[in-house]
Specification:
The chain has about 325 residues and is of the alpha/beta class. It contains 11 helices and 10 strands. Strands 1, 2, 3, 4, 7, 8, 9 and 10 form an 8-stranded mixed sheet that branches. Strands 5-6 form a two-stranded parallel sheet. Strand 5, helix 6 and strand 6 form a beta-alpha-beta unit. Helix 2 packs across helix 9. The longest helix is centred in the C-terminal third of the chain and has 22 residues. It is globular, with a radius of gyration of 20 Å. It starts with a helix and ends in a 5-residue tail after the last helix.
């Protein structure tokens, strides 16, 4: 496990790239009142669930209530912008995602309203869930090689489903295009549910989806698993090979979550929050709560999380540029 963490969060020297943490402050009795955890998506979704699981455990650890504040809208940008503009006193933090901090800054660069790096203080990575490339049973492919052969036999004249423009499953498809050297078009849906429904019906041949969500459909034979998107096989389904091991060694993407505060938070408060998050996310009972719902925890130091987000930000900038995608 340590070797995996060191590989993923290898030290990265980023001159002036990481946001500044404010001067050392005496945290004193922090927190002495409830802390607001902004969730940039509506109640009921994956990010909301992650936020609520963390809020309960973190509140018990800190001895103060962590209030989940759902501020959904604009693909997560409204909540992230609200947190960026909050007072950096530790009483407003935000659960960030790959979408809010790595993809949206490039897709919505003219209207996003915050700098994904400079407007925030990194506190800790929280966890992740893998995606999986799934196909309708009628598709004559059981692995990446066969799927690519099928796509090329159609002269790229097919489309894959995605749960929304800029979503991680959408970007997984664009990364697959770029890595495999294909140019398959995509059909965006208003959520993963409608996209999955159309793939199940055979209207579109394949899609990328969060593994815990579609695993029952894979086990029942309603969908075929082609490969998971993480560098290593998932603990949730170790029998499903990775896309990387099937001839695309540079392919890697996951849906991740982490905690940020506004820029220039005092170091003492960052330390208090990071220590508490790392403590609760390494407890066996809390890890099991996350795992049973399809999420793996991976707490880090603020520096490790900041470096990881910067790498993700730079990587997705290149992918968006090469794909020609930009909403505004």
């Amino acid at each position: 496990m340590l070797r995996t963490l060191l590989k993923i969060f290898a030290p990265v020297v980023i001159g002036g790239a990481l946001p500044l943490i404010g001067p050392v402050a005496h945290a004193g009795d922090y927190p002495d009142r409830p802390v607001h955890l902004v969730v940039s998506y509506p109640a009921g979704g994956a990010t909301d669930l992650i936020g609520r699981l963390l809020a309960e455990a973190l509140g018990d650890k800190l001895g103060q209530r962590i209030v989940v504040d759902n501020r959904g809208g604009a693909s997560g940008m409204l909540g992230a912008r609200f947190a960026a503009e909050a007072k950096p006193d530790g009483y407003t933090i935000v659960i960030a995602t790959a979408t809010t901090h790595a993809v949206n800054p490039w897709l919505f660069r003219n209207t996003i309203g915050y700098d994904a790096i400079k407007s925030f203080t990194p506190i800790s990575y929280v966890g992740y869930t893998p995606l999986v490339l799934v196909a309708h049973p009628s598709v004559p492919a059981s692995n990446v090689k066969e799927l690519l052969a099928y796509i090329k036999s159609k002269n790229n004249d097919i489309s894959y489903a995605n749960g929304g423009t800029g979503s991680v499953p959408h970007m997984a498809g664009e990364l697959f295009n770029a890595t495999a050297g294909i140019k398959v078009q995509t059909v965006p849906y208003k959520g993963d549910g409608p996209a999955t429904t159309d793939v199940l019906a055979g209207h579109l041949p394949y899609m990328f989806a969060h593994l815990p969500v579609v695993l029952p459909l894979i086990r029942s034979g309603q969908l075929k698993a082609i490969g998971v998107t993480t560098p290593q096989r998932s603990e949730f389904a170790p029998d499903i090979p990775t896309i990387a091991e099937q001839g695309l060694p540079n392919y890697s993407i996951e849906t991740w979550w982490g905690i940020f505060g506004p820029a220039k938070m005092p170091k003492d408060i960052v330390f208090t929050l990071n220590t508490a998050i790392r403590d609760v996310l390494t407890k066996p009972d809390v890890k099991k709560l996350f795992f049973d719902r399809g999420y793996e925890t991976r707490p880090t130091t603020p520096e490790e999380f900041g470096a990881y987000v910067k790498k993700e930000y730079d990587r997705w900038g290149k992918i968006v540029e090469e794909s020609g995608m930009q909403v505004n």
